[in-house]
Amino acid sequence: MKQIISTTEAPAAIGAYSQAVVANGLLFASGQLGIDPATGEFAGADFRSQAEQAVKNVAAILKAAGTDASHVVKTTVFLTDMANFAVLNEVYSTLFTSPFPARSAIAVAALPKGGLVEIEILAVLD
Questions:
Q1: Most CB within 10 Å of its CB: which of 37, 51, 108, 112?
Q2: Which of 61, 125, 46 shows the shortest CA–CA distance to 95?
Q3: Is the pLDDT of residue 50 over 90?
Q4: What is the assigned CATH class of domain 2-124?
Q5: DSSP letter at 101?
């Protein structure tokens, strides 16, 4: 059985998917762009603003699921420019602390709505 996680504190899905799904004690969260849920627009045109908002959106989904970043075991980060990797690490470290989850960072040609960064997570629920 699966449970759908949804919160107004993160952007609504922009396609045929859920913000997150819980199944068998695992939380699978869809990738979060740097979209401000209050406006439906990107938090800014620059990478840092979008990364900071994406991290806030991830935190909101974790909270809606009754958990926090300490339960995240794997993240996947999609960037449109690997030159932003150092900034990503700075922003990422505001949510995730040691011991860090496993992570993949992948350069992509494009993201939905022209975003610069997208973060997805997998967490273990207690």
A1: 51
A2: 61
A3: yes
A4: alpha beta
A5: P
> If DSSP codes are grouped into helix, strand and coil, which group holds residue 8?
coil
0.90 exceeded by pTM: yes
Question: Of 43, 29, 49, nearest to 90 (Cα)?
Answer: 49
Q: Is 18 helix (H, G, I), strand (E, B) or coil?
A: coil
The DSSP symbol for 35 reads B
Exposure string of 77-111, with b = 16+ CB inside 10 Å and e = fewer, is: bbbbeeebeebbeebbeebbeeeebebebeeeeeb
Residue 126 or 17, more confident: 17
SS3 content of the chain, % helix, strand, coil (to 5): 30, 30, 40
What gap in Å lies between CA 18 and CA 61, rounded to an integer? 11
Domain range summary for the chain, segments of one domain joined by +: 2-124
CB 100 within 8 A of CB 110: no
Q: How far apart are CA 119 and CA 114, in angstroms?
A: 14
